[in-house]
Write a sequence for this structure.
């Protein structure tokens, strides 16, 4: 799922992105496995908890980094993070209220993968471009 | 239908394909049609409301839709299941969202109705004597259709 052209050239963020993709990949692998759903459900819940926490840690770290470098589009970026979190939370609520059904988990998995690729592949690239434009140390990728 | 309605969808489609799949679709054919026809097996329909009303539909051959999900996920799949249809719908949603941002710069304020995904059904949506534009785009993983029907309120 991770591709090297998703790198932004800032090591801290790139490492976290790789970890995020790894977790989403793992989540996707479990939800799409052909094993009986009842046997997988505990693993799905556990992976989902991990992932949800990691998204929050990563977004906080990324926003702190943007503050540190005086990133001009920080507010726009924070809004995108908030929307991403809200998208996840809507499904978390749905699962809490209506239970974990295989179909809804799959639907969530498909969206989550798409959101992650678009966010990292587009919005986050602009952070790397800004760092480079300021003569900073973002590696050429 | 004005060109200024169409270009934002064409451009957003190219941008998102490049970003998500590393593919740059090229125009192959452009036709004016009487209905929005789902000529290929997997389609994503987005309704548009607001200053412009109508819809846009992406129609992909099954193999191409599966290959798209494979490129994104790095996983093999052989049917359009809930995971794949959700991802395809979201790609459509993101393309539509980007196109509407572009249209808003020309003062057309619109909203998207959440995508509907049709698999394996051949259907045509009648446009009540209006015309739609059918753009066929070619890529190394297959040709797909983008049908656009929009009219000003």
């Amino acid at each position: 799922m991770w591709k090297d052209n998703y790198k932004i050239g800032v090591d801290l963020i790139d490492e976290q992105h790789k970890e995020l993709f790894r977790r989403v990949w793992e989540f996707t692998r479990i939800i799409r496995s052909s094993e009986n759903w009842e046997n997988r459900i505990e693993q799905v819940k556990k992976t989902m908890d991990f992932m949800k926490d990691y998204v929050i840690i990563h977004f906080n770290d990324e926003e702190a980094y943007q503050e540190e470098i005086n990133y001009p589009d920080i507010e726009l970026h924070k809004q995108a993070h908030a929307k991403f979190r809200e998208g996840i939370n809507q499904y978390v609520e749905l699962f809490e209220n209506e239970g974990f059904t295989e179909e809804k988990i799959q639907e969530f998995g498909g969206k989550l993968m798409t959101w992650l690729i678009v966010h990292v592949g587009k919005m986050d690239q602009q952070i790397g471009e800004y760092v480079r434009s300021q003569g900073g140390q973002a590696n050429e990728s | 239908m004005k060109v200024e309605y169409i270009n934002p969808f064409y451009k957003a489609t190219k941008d998102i394909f490049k970003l998500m799949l590393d593919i740059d679709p090229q125009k192959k054919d452009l036709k004016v049609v009487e209905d929005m026809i789902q000529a290929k097996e997997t389609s994503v329909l987005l309704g548009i409301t607001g200053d412009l009303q109508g819809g846009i539909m992406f129609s992909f051959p099954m193999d191409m839709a599966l290959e798209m999900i494979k490129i994104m996920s790095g996983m093999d799949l052989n049917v359009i299941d809930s995971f794949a249809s959700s991802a395809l719908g979201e790609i459509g949603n993101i393309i539509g969202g980007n196109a509407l941002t572009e249209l808003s710069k020309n003062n057309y304020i619109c909203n998207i109705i959440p995508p509907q995904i049709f698999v394996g059904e051949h259907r045509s949506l009648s446009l009540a004597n209006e015309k739609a534009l059918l753009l066929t785009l070619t890529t190394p993983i297959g040709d797909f259709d983008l049908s656009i029907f929009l009219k000003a309120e």
